[in-house]
Amino acid sequence: MFSYFPGNYAWSTSVNLALMAGGTIGDIHRWLAPLRDSGSTDVFEWGKAWSAMGHQQEGLAEIDVRAGHLTTAGTRLLRASVYHATGQRQIPPGPVKSESYAAMLQAFADAVEHTPLPVERIHVDSPDGMLPGYLIPATSRLDETGRAPVVIVFGGLDMTKELLYAIIGRTFAERGITCLVIDTPGVGEPLRIRGVPARPDSEVPARAIIDDLETREGIDASRVAVMGLSLGGYYAARAAAYEKRISACVAWAGIWDWGTTWRRRWETGAAYHVPWFQLPWALGEQTMEGALERVSRFSLVDVWPEVAQPLLIVHGEDDQQIPLADAARAFEAAGSADKELRVFTASDGGAEHIQTDDPDPARQLIADWLAQRLVVAPRTRMRAYGIAGR
């Protein structure tokens, strides 16, 4: 892995995630080199550097707006939102974190306004209250009725919908698939604004999301896929197991038993990509002991056999967060007849967790795999039977 902060896995993997989402090494080096060179591990100094990085882009965007260069301004603002999002992930809950998160939301909203980004903000009514998300509409290959399949994207531990948009962008839309990036319980707005913790039964929010999608024009709700990054791979698999309206599943990290993984991390002091406060906070617990008890419910050991839809698991050979052996066990246990485990190696690039060290090959592979099952294959079947579309 590219270790900008040697010996500091959490900060280095955050740098890689920011690059994955469209940050630039020039910006990052300009603001983070003093921290690296001094050996500082102060998370508030870390947060200040990322906030300054984001605000610099916002200032440059203002100049672009005055010059009438709105698309350029929007691009800078999207990058600013990535920088604010990256900085606040290492900061404990409190005023500083909240201020940085608000700056992220504002920068993204301004990017949508100025570019304009082709997204539609939606709110899904669920048992946990309203879940906010962004629909990214398909741009091509719609069926005869003008509808497109859709993929619901779940983020990992503290991966917001804005960061998901920056990572995915138009990758699915260009292949004829509408994409929904959404904050679910335990992340983004539900956690920060309403205090809604993560829940193990992800089929509950998934069910509410699909109910909502069935009411929207331009979406073929008979072709709904789920995809999840990191912990989102757990959410996607669990949703597919118990919500049979889902047509395909992608786990961008093959999770087996997340509770056991966390217990092992805690007992060994293993490096992780977020500080230890993150787990209790996301799960609505006050102590690590309570969080470890609650996280034991996040197991897919008995769930994978219930996943019958076409399944793709994407994993890195050198994943330091989820062992490759867990992905292999998940693949063997999955009940899908159409299933694939794609392991990226060091020679491929993308050998780290969710391929942050070289993400684009995995991103394109996932999009092509979903297009084959949601766009190409359904049309082939329809033509074979003389059906114009549902």
From TrEMBL:
Transmembrane segments: none annotated. Keywords: Hydrolase. The keyword Signal does not apply. It comes from the Bacteria. One of its GO terms (molecular function) is hydrolase activity. Belongs to the AB hydrolase superfamily. This is Alpha/beta fold hydrolase. It comes from Pseudonocardia ailaonensis.
